[in-house]
Design a protein that fits this description.
Helices cover 64% and strands 0% of the residues. It folds into two domains: 66 residues; 49 residues, no CATH class. With 138 residues, it is mostly helical. About 7% of the residues have low confidence. α1 runs antiparallel to α2 and α2 packs antiparallel against α3. It is elongated.
């Protein structure tokens, strides 16, 4: 009886919080938690991680859809035969985004003493990095 009341409470709370994945996984994870002797914290972490993962996936799908791309493509599908000057290894490395966490000193382009050239270079880099780390919102 107590389990049924608890599940009804969870269903009510997840509707109020607009967290449907918690509602879908709470009972199943509760059974697993009981059988594997999870702590309350472990159970809560498992339930919340499901919700967070689903929201992140849903958010990225929404951003891709709202961007209006005609089809969804990935780096794995890219045909390097059309652009032989591109290095497959370099593009794969850049696709990981590792360079975003590494500090580097930007090298100015243009004339050696051209402040405008350096400003355009750094401004362009910052805009490019911003679009990679923080997708545009509508």
């Amino acid at each position: 009886m107590a389990d049924t009341d608890s599940l009804k409470d969870i269903e009510h709370y997840t509707q109020a919080l607009k967290a449907p994945r918690i509602r879908e996984s709470a009972a199943r994870l509760a059974e697993q938690a009981r059988s594997d002797a999870w702590s309350h914290e472990d159970y809560l972490a498992a339930v919340l991680s499901r919700e967070v993962t689903a929201r992140q996936s849903s958010g990225s799908q929404t951003r891709i859809r709202s961007a209006g791309f005609p089809t969804r493509k990935s780096l794995e599908e890219f045909n390097f035969d059309y652009s032989p000057s591109l290095s497959r290894e370099t593009v794969s490395h850049l696709g990981t985004g590792v360079f975003l966490t590494q500090a580097y000193k930007p090298q100015p382009s243009g004339a050696a003493n051209s402040r405008l050239g350096f400003t355009n270079f750094v401004g362009g880099r910052l805009l490019r990095l911003r679009s990679i780390t923080y997708p545009a919102r509508r």
